[in-house]
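Re: that backbone. Tokens:
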């Protein structure tokens, strides 16, 4: 009997081999020789494997799309924002879609369609954008948005014939008091049930999951390697590049790296706050995963940070809490990355940093 390998077995073996090969990224020469960094790196690979299967196997039918959370407390990538709830759905530009729900009270909400993916070309090029400023909402808080390549009356989120995905960002001032929007999506002419699973279709989806996993791990590993070359700084990043990989057009991004001993601190100062929707800063690990914001104070924003009497803002990042109102925890890390964002800023005020002894860091706001 001829021992002919089934195509699906080959697809599965390719996925498993990609998981094994990705271990090379965790133990590469440029990665800090640090047990914590390496342990988190292996955990990161397991998280990206889950993300790959959710993105491209479980929720990859554009005829029956589902809004789900692609990044959250236990799946993190690319400096995921602790102030955000992210929702994603797969699209096909040949269809029109209806997003419906209630607005909630979350401070900022945006909807964007894009083409390209980390599974294909490392790109997510925006094909349409709509934010809360332009969203028409009924008195009871309900709304509908039509997603279509063709202009629509009312709330219209543009798409193109080759659009592939929808991303919703909800940005909180304070998660404790604001409520998220409740949203669902359906194809405008949606049928009753999805088509049955086939070997060919599942094999194609698994192939995309394999490519996404390989490409995403490699992409952010390169970012980490680049960021760590300028320790204890917070430089402005190439915004065109940020937009090409899925950044929000209303947001300006800064990425930096901290490297601190237990008795050291990084002083981060913002000279003044220009008119803007909000700003935030977050602390991440080497792999650009937000630190565990469920248990550590690893982010501040325009609402939660305290301003100095002159309108400037001083932030203190250190392994130990020194009592300053704007102290940020390293969450048990002595090195990692950090991200600063302006959202809707009319002027860019670049944050500055200073590497100091913890004993020299301010412990309170200046007197008015």
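Recovered sequence:
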């Amino acid at each position: 009997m001829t021992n002919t390998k089934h195509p699906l077995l080959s697809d599965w073996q390719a996925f498993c081999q990609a998981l094994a090969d990705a271990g090379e990224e965790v133990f590469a020469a440029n990665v800090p020789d640090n047990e914590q960094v390496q342990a988190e790196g292996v955990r990161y690979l397991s998280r990206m494997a889950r993300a790959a299967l959710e993105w491209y196997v479980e929720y990859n039918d554009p005829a029956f799309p589902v809004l789900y959370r692609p990044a959250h407390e236990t799946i993190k990538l690319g400096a995921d924002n602790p102030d955000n709830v992210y929702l994603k759905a797969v699209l096909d530009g040949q269809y029109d879609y209806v997003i419906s729900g209630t607005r909630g009270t979350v401070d900022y909400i945006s909807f964007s369609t894009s083409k390209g993916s980390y599974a294909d070309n490392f790109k997510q090029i925006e094909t349409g954008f709509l934010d809360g400023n332009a969203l028409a909402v009924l008195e009871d808080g309900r709304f509908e948005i039509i997603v279509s390549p063709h202009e629509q009356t009312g709330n219209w989120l543009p798409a193109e014939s080759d659009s592939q995905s929808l991303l919703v960002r909800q940005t909180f001032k304070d998660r404790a008091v604001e409520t998220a929007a409740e949203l669902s999506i359906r194809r405008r002419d949606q049928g009753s049930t999805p088509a049955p699973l086939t070997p060919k279709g599942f094999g194609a989806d698994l192939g995309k999951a394999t490519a996404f996993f390989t490409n995403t791990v490699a992409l952010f590993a390169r970012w980490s390697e680049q960021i760590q070359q300028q320790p204890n700084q917070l430089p402005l990043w190439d915004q065109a590049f940020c937009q090409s990989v899925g950044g929000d057009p209303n947001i300006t991004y800064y990425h930096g790296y901290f490297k601190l001993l237990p008795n050291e601190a990084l002083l981060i100062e913002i000279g003044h706050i220009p008119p803007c929707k909000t700003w935030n800063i977050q602390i991440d690990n080497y792999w650009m995963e937000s630190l565990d914001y469920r248990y550590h104070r690893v982010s501040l924003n325009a609402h939660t940070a305290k301003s100095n009497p002159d309108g400037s803002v001083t932030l203190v990042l250190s392994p130990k809490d020194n009592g300053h109102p704007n102290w940020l925890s390293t969450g048990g890390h002595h090195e990692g990355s950090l991200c600063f964002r302006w959202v809707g800023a009319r002027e860019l005020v670049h944050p500055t940093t200073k590497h100091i002894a913890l004993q020299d860091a301010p412990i309170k706001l200046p007197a008015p």
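The chain has three domains: 1-61+194-227, 70-190, 229-360. The radius of gyration is 22 Å.
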